[in-house]
TrEMBL record:
InterPro entries: HAMP_dom, HATPase_C_sf, HATPase_dom, His_kinase_dom, HisK_dim/P_dom, HisK_dim/P_sf, HssS/ArlS-like, Sig_transdc_His_kin-like_C. This is histidine kinase. Its main location: membrane. Coiled coil: none annotated. The chain crosses the membrane at residues 15-37, 190-213. Residues 211-263 form the HAMP domain. It is an enzyme of class 2 (transferase). Pfam families: HAMP (PF00672), HATPase_c (PF02518), HisKA (PF00512). One of its GO terms (molecular function) is ATP binding. Residues 278-495 form the Histidine kinase domain. It is found in: Cell membrane. GO terms for cellular component: plasma membrane.
């Protein structure tokens, strides 16, 4: 699998290296510690087994024969014979005869070549050895090497008033040499054996543990790759259980953001396409009418009556006006949609603005025999908003109210202040909006429903909604067919 091949080979190499170093260090320490304690253990064993050797020598060997001290001097012949007998059995021992203060009177060793000029040994370990009856592991001076301490056996003697010690080095020079040769072989065997075993176990354990350690990483790399290859649903499962939770969570969040942004871009793109399709349809209709009437006037210019000419000109004017309005709206809407407009908020009197607008629309209202007036005008309500944008929104709403209200109807603009908010309501007694259409009137161009699309002529309410968005507020519609509609929105009040 490609995922496995590309999985951070450097990391795997580092893990292997760390494992090998660990095994070598642990292995070497183990061999060293084992060797040290093994040596101590065998020394302690030899000392314990031979604890009574010196005592035995005095009790058994010299009891019935002539004493080894004659007139205060060592009976070398006797002593030497006996010692050599013993050493024939155990070549590792070295026997010393000392006086009370530890001065060496006589020694029997196999090889005198390694002798040093040490003439005495410390009696402290000797006394301790005798006091504990050899039960304790004690090291004494090595007469042949002052820097070394050795296991020994010792026993006191008292012959004709002369006191001293029989001091026997148990692991003598001979034993040391043999042991040194053997230990070298032992260590090399142990080293080879341990290394082979370590390599075998390190291989098995290393493989398994590295596999487990990198399992999550492999899964994560696989998920990231799947995402890269286009599977936008790919997410790291159970990030909490992952070894690298932060990475897993960050990746998942990043993937969500990317998918979210893609969706947003798609929907904006979709909206643009729909807008272009619908608007071009809406532009084509008045253009076709314009063209039709102009052509007719050109063809029949001599046969048309003045009244007909007047009527045709009015129709062409109305359609040109519709076109210009639509183009203006489109321009305005695209600027709002592209977020090119930033509201410049300031305190202003919504009551005054409404008065001006009512005055402006009153001519049209009178033409259509509609009663247009302002409610609650006695209060002067101040709001904090972008005056130009609010004026545009109110214009669109009043235009619609007058457009969809039949003669003898009523259009009322009410302003009501509730603490920190000012509620503005544009109510008419017009045609009303069917319930099914109400959810779509603010963003008609987003809708794919062709029945709704066909009715669209302008972007008036879509612009109103964008203006509300820029003021972080919403607009609601309450409408009943044949009874009328109310468009209500709130703006933040400004307290002087
Ligand atoms: P239009 O140019 O078509 O009026 P708008 O965006 O201003 O575009 O309005 C969208 C639609 O909402 C209208 O086509 C109409 O069906 C409905 N509408 C808006 N205002 C009113 C109203 N006051 N009374 C009845 N219907 C309305």
């Amino acid at each position: 699998m490609s995922t496995d091949k590309t999985l951070t080979p450097r990391l795997v190499k580092k893990l292997w290296l760390a494992l090998i170093v660990l095994i070598v260090v642990i292995g070497a320490s183990y061999i060293f510690i084992t060797g040290y304690f093994d040596n101590k253990h065998s020394e302690a064993t030899i000392q314990k087994i031979n604890a009574s050797l010196a005592n035995h020598l005095i009790e058994e060997k010299f009891q019935d024969s002539s004493p080894f001290l004659v007139d205060g001097s060592v009976n070398k012949a006797l002593f030497g014979d006996l010692m050599h007998d013993m050493m024939a059995v155990n070549r590792s021992i070295e026997v010393y005869l000392t006086d009370k203060s530890g001065h060496i009177l006589y020694s029997v060793v196999l090889d005198h070549s390694a002798d040093s000029d040490v003439k005495s040994v410390s009696t402290t370990p000797i006394k301790e050895f005798i006091a504990t009856k050899g039960e304790k592991y004690i090291l004494g001076d090595n007469p042949r090497n002052p820097d070394e301490r050795k296991i020994f056996s010792a026993a006191p003697y008292n012959i004709e008033g002369k006191e001293g010690y029989i001091y026997i080095i148990l692991a003598g020079q001979e034993l040391q040499q043999v042991s040194d040769t053997l230990i070298g072989r032992y260590y090399s065997n142990l080293g080879i054996g341990a290394s082979l075993l370590a390599i075998l176990f390190a291989g098995i354990i290393g493989f398994i543990s590295i596999w487990f350690l990198t399992k999550n990483l492999r899964l994560m790399t696989g998920t990231v790759r799947r995402f890269q290859e286009g599977d936008l649903e790919a997410r790291i499962e159970n990030p909490k259980n992952s070894d690298i939770e932060v990475f897993a969570n960050t990746f998942n969040e990043m993937a969500d953001t990317i998918v979210g942004n893609l969706d947003k871009m798609k929907s904006v793109d979709q909206l643009r396409r729909e807008l272009i399709a619908n608007v071009s349809h809406d532009l084509r209709t008045p253009l076709a009418i314009l063209k039709g009437y102009i052509e007719t006037m050109q063809m029949k210019k001599d046969s048309l009556t003045d009244l007909e000419k007047q009527e045709y000109l009015q129709i062409t004017y109305d359609n040109a006006d519709k076109l210009s309005k639509l183009i203006n709206q489109l321009f305005e809407y695209s600027k709002l949609e592209a977020e090119q407009i930033t509201p410049v908020k300031e305190p202003f009197s919504i009551t005054e603005l409404s008065h001006d607008l009512i005055a402006k629309f009153n001519v049209l209202a009178q033409q259509k025999e509609i009663d247009l007036h302002l409610n609650n005008a006695q209060e002067n309500c101040m709001v904090f908003a972008d005056i130009g944008l609010v004026e545009r929104a109110l214009q669109n709403l009043l235009e619609n109210a007058l457009k969809y209200t039949p003669p003898k109807g009523e259009v009322v603009l009410s302003i009501k202040q509730n603490n920190d908010q000012v509620e503005i309501n544009i109510r008419d007694t017009g045609t009303g909006i069917p319930l099914s259409e109400q959810p779509f009137i603010f963003d008609r161009y987003k809708q794919v429903d062709s029945s709704i699309k066909k009715q669209g002529h302008g972007l008036g309410l879509a612009i109103v909604k964008k203006i509300m968005d820029l003021h972080d507020t919403t607009i609601t519609v309450l409408s009943k067919p044949k009874e009328g509609s109310s468009f209500i929105f709130k703006l933040p009040a400004y307290h002087v």
